[in-house]
């Protein structure tokens, strides 16, 4: 058997020189130089031409450019939505509404009946929880009763802070909350068509606010009594349902 030919030998210096040679790196200029020129007679679009628009890497004339569909409103914005599986979500104008992250003792169905509204639209949170109703089906605008748990454990302290702040805001040094008829320990007040009530019974004081048109004034003591009597949910307890219910 004949011997295999030996591999050619190269000087060590030549090998090291080749290893040190930089690899070829393409540059925008080199790529551009490598692209074939357009055939004669074919027009080339100028991206700086005002008659041309860019869509990604493609150029179009203004008349033929694709028009992206406008962004659809987020679920719950402007119309009720339950696709989140957590709550009946609604906000008249918030672009991206969210469900209330805490309970307040609100009972949407019973308060709808007390106030005489035609439809419960849903809830959303914006500093406090807003519960929206449609008064009638004849083009009325949604109204809301809002509720929150505030950073006070003592209703008297919460009311004192509120009255002090409102006395400055209204420039009325005699501004003062008064007891809610039929709701022990609850206090309420009003100014410029807006009403506030502070309710005892939970670890944190609950504040409820509403405008004149949110519910008939003679029904609000019953509404507040219903909210005040609701049991506080246990820690990390799941919601009773998509629509807020007062725990009994």
UniProtKB/TrEMBL annotation:
Alphabetically ordered keywords of this record: Signal
UniProt protein name: DUF3558 domain-containing protein
Source superkingdom: Bacteria
Compositionally biased tracts (Basic and acidic residues): 48-57
Signal peptide: 1-20
Annotated region described as Disordered, given as residue ranges: 26-83
Source species taxonomy: Bacteria, Pseudomonadati, Myxococcota, Polyangia, Nannocystales
């Amino acid at each position: 058997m004949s011997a295999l030919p030996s591999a050619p030998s190269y000087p060590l210096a030549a090998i090291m020189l080749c290893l040190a040679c930089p690899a070829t790196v393409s540059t925008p200029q080199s790529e551009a130089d490598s692209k074939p020129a357009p055939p004669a007679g074919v027009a080339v679009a100028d991206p700086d031409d005002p008659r041309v628009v860019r869509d990604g890497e493609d150029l179009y004339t203004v008349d033929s450019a694709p028009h992206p569909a406008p962004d659809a409103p987020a679920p719950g914005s402007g119309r009720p939505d339950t696709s989140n599986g957590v709550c009946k979500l609604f906000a008249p104008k918030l672009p991206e509404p969210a469900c209330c992250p805490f309970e307040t003792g609100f009972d949407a169905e019973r308060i709808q009946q007390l106030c005489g509204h035609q439809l419960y639209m849903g809830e959303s949170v914006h500093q406090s929880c807003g519960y929206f109703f449609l008064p009638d089906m004849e083009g009325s605008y949604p109204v809301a009763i809002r509720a929150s748990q505030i950073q006070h454990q003592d209703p008297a302290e919460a009311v004192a802070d509120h009255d002090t702040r409102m006395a400055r805001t209204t420039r009325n040094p005699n501004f003062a909350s008064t007891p809610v008829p039929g709701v022990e320990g609850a206090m309420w007040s009003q100014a410029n068509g807006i009403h506030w009530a502070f309710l005892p019974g939970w670890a944190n004081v609950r504040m409820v606010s509403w405008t004149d048109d949110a519910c008939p004034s003679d029904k609000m003591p019953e509404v507040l009594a219903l909210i005040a009597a609701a049991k506080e949910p246990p820690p990390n307890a799941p919601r009773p349902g998509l629509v807020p219910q007062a725990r009994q």
